[in-house]
Design a protein that fits this description.
heterotrimer; A alpha/beta; B alpha/beta; C mainly beta; A: Rossmann fold; Rossmann fold; 13 helices; B: alpha/beta; 6-stranded mixed beta sheet; 6 strands
Chain lengths: ~375, ~180, ~100
């Protein structure tokens, strides 16, 4: 069904279509509209689920553990310092191999207090064992939530998955969305089954101590599953495209005008829309420029990126986060894995600073001249 | 059609964000691709608020704020004492101001600007100074970028649980739409 | 002395006894009882059933829950888990508990 809705509502509809049963949630700007919409659906009887009004984000994440172990497909959403309060529980969910799905409406972290968008919250959790997918549009929100469950619950993966959407820059944007039908979603996403669950008739021990003689093996299992996730994400994207006619590159990265591109910008989320608009304009003037959108940050798709960048003369990475004392995290990883290409790193759009067509043009100019004129897009 | 960008100026609580969203839904009913989003500052009643709508016949990629609007809609002219509503405005477009003064009196003589007393019409029709939806009637009438029929549909959807409110807003929209045909 | 048949534990991985499940789930739980934690006692407390008034004080104060009540209502010490702290001996109101040096 074609409609115009807010991206937050697209997320909530994705959750509803995925037949989620438990939502422990604690609202925080700019993710608030997501629990609001889900509350509406439950209150109106459109969604058969339990909303748990928890007293903090720490509890929201903790309740996910119990809900999933009890056999329920579960969801939460958060932002910024609320995300930071979940931090302790994030590696427990991944270490216990619980396929939770969370939407992060990306917002910077205080101080100074600031409600606007950058990736400081989710990027700070890059080592917590969660799959991280970054989306660009409202359409991708609804499509990706459904895919997140498909990926997270795959037996080859079994890892919690977060879908990151830019706060305000996407979460509060109304735009055209083509909603998938419930029957087709049901066929794509079978009902949730977990192999080891809480059952009084068949008790098991969850979350035991892992001594030094087993701990590394358990971590390697998680790493192997992350590697498996590369193929599973690709397959989910491909299968979804077959059923619903919507796809996002190979699922891991999305390429725009990259076939014969000499210079490219690589970024995550909504910056890519503006970069595409500028690249389209520059193409009409004969410049061979393109855009690479990194959709999967964890797992990091080294092979897809190598293939996409192998013929480039120059690549610019725009990070919406800085690892203070070092560099942008995406730049750092690209630079270590794609060493044969000349890579410039930029810090952009922190704390809601708009990333403009002008910024993008200046970056393409740097690439063309082969000289990085600045590091911060102020 | 080429991409059209609309900037709304209002005050917190006046409904500028709702205006931009209802306009986006209306444009969708006309078969267009749209995008509507707010530019929040402090979230305080009475604080200046900007929101934007983009309309195009093809999918819209760009996601920067609107800097060079084709249309500017000012819901409250008292904003103009502190804010330059003409910022980035290119003279080929149109500025619509809710005011009982003339564009010249408001210092907009150099621009293609039209003044409509939307507050008066809202008070007559709705009985309350709700101008945000009625202002879309002026936009539809003066710009031709969206149809009154599509606006009606979008208003009905927005206020679906409050039939009376939808009806009054549609009526105010229509009165403003027709009134604009008389404005020179 | 009851001996408990050993169940699987995560620690058995290296010994090749069990598959290391994802998330370290232990599918046959309760393996804490497999660890006979009382093997290093110096003193062994002994309950004199003739003197015992079944007041349950020892059962309540035992820090290792090593004292249980059998089907006849007798208080019995499970020496697999008793560490010989002798708290029971100190607290027994009728002095029904004595100690013996363990032979090792």
């Amino acid at each position: 069904m074609k409609t115009v809705i807010e991206a937050s509502e697209a997320v909530a509809l994705g959750v509803k279509l995925s037949r989620v049963k438990v939502c422990p949630m604690y609202p925080i700007t700019p993710s608030t509209h997501i629990p609001e919409r889900i509350s509406d659906y439950i209150f109106d009887g459109e969604m058969d689920a339990q909303m748990i009004h928890v007293e903090s984000e720490h509890s929201a994440a903790s309740a996910l553990i119990g809900a999933i172990l009890a056999g329920s497909r579960s969801f939460t959403a958060t932002s910024s310092n609320g995300f930071e309060l979940m931090y302790e529980i994030l590696p427990i969910l991944s270490g216990m191999r619980l396929p939770a799905v969370m939407a992060v409406a990306n917002r910077t972290v205080a101080a100074p207090i600031n409600i606007w968008n950058d990736h400081s919250d989710s990027m700070s959790a890059r080592d917590q064992g969660w799959i991280q997918l970054y989306v660009e549009s409202s359409q991708e929100c609804v499509d990706t939530i459904i895919q997140c469950y498909k990926i997270a619950e795959d037996k080859k993966v079994l890892l919690p998955t977060m879908m990151c959407l830019d706060g305000f820059s996407l979460s509060h944007v109304y735009e055209n969305v083509d909603l998938p039908g419930q029957k087709k979603v049901d066929a794509f996403l079978p009902s949730f089954k977990i192999e080891d669950k809480l059952d009084v008739k068949n008790p098991k021990t969850f979350g035991p101590i892992g001594f030094p003689d087993t701990f590394m093996e358990l971590k390697k299992q998680q790493q192997d599953s992350m590697s498996n996730a590369l193929e599973v994400i690709k397959k989910a994207n491909k299968d979804y495209a077959k059923e619903f006619g919507k796809s996002y590159g190979d699922g891991l990265i999305e390429l725009f005008e990259m076939d014969d591109a000499e210079y490219a910008i690589l970024a995550l989320g909504t910056i890519c829309g503006t970069a595409k608009a500028k690249a389209r304009e520059l193409r009409s003037k004969g410049k061979k420029v393109g855009v690479i959108r990194l959709r999967s940050f964890r797992p990091f798709p080294v092979e897809s990126l190598k293939k996409a960048t192998k013929n480039l003369k120059g690549l610019a990475v725009l990070d919406r986060h800085i690892s203070l004392g070092a560099k942008g995290p995406v730049f750092t990883e690209i630079n270590s894995d794609i060493s044969e290409t000349n890579v410039f790193g930029y810090i952009a759009g922190l704390g809601g600073r708009d990333v403009t067509l002008e910024h993008i043009e200046s970056v393409f100019k740097d690439l063309e001249t082969g000289k990085q004129s600045k590091e911060w897009l102020l | 059609m080429a991409l059209k960008e609309v900037r709304f100026h209002g005050r917190g609580g006046q409904g500028a964000v709702t205006s931009s969203q209802v306009l986006a839904v209306a444009a969708f009913h006309d078969g267009k691709f749209t995008q509507a989003f707010p530019n929040f500052g402090v979230e305080r009643t009475g604080a200046p608020v900007e929101s934007y709508t983009r309309i195009d016949s093809v999918p819209i990629d760009v996601r920067q704020h609107v800097y060079n609007p084709d249309y500017v809609i000012v819901l409250d002219p008292s904003l103009m004492a502190n804010i330059d509503v003409t910022k980035g405005f290119e003279k080929k477009g149109l500025i619509i101001v809710n005011s009982n003064k003339t564009p010249k009196e408001l210092g907009l003589g150099a621009f293609n600007a039209k003044c409509i007393d939307i507050t008066k019409i809202a008070l007559d029709v709705i009985g309350k100074p709700f101008v945000n939806i009625a202002a879309l009637g002026a936009f539809a009438s003066l710009s031709g970028e969206v149809s009154l029929k599509a606006l009606d549909k979008a208003i009905d959807e927005r206020f679906s649980e409050k039939g009376k409110i939808a009806g009054l807003n549609k009526e105010a929209c229509k009165v403003v739409f027709n009134k604009c045909k008389e404005v020179k | 002395m009851a001996s408990v048949k050993r169940k699987e534990s995560v620690g058995d991985l290296k010994k090749g006894k069990v598959e290391l499940t994802r998330g370290a789930v232990i599918r046959k739980p309760g393996n804490t009882t497999d660890y006979h934690t009382g093997s290093w006692r110096v003193f062994r407390p002994i309950i004199d059933q003739a003197t015992c008034i079944k007041c349950s004080t020892c059962w309540r104060v035992c820090p290792d829950a090593a004292i249980f009540v059998d089907k006849d209502g007798k208080y019995i010490i499970n020496y697999d888990y008793c560490k010989g702290c002798l708290t029971c001996l100190k607290e027994c109101p009728v002095k029904a508990i004595s100690k013996e040096l363990e032979e090792k």
